[in-house]
């Protein structure tokens, strides 16, 4: 391989693995309670949702 091919290979390896590492760090820092479609909307906490499923079953 010539020099430009090696440089491009190293560049794209850094971009791909760097993106993976950044996404892992971002996911670890983000709270599960604040993500998703509902986020922190009223009535979406664990206690309320658990109560609703038990009512539906009973």
TrEMBL record:
Q: Which gene encodes it?
A: metS
Alphabetized, the UniProt keywords read: Membrane, Transmembrane, Transmembrane helix
Tell whether Glycosyltransferase is among the UniProt keywords: no
Q: Where is the composition biased (Basic and acidic residues)?
A: 48-58
User: InterPro entries from the xrefs?
Assistant: MaAIMP_sms
Region (Disordered), start-end ranges:
35-58
Highest rank taxon of the organism: Bacteria
- Please give the name of this protein: Methionine/alanine import NSS transporter subunit MetS
Q: TM segments?
A: 6-27
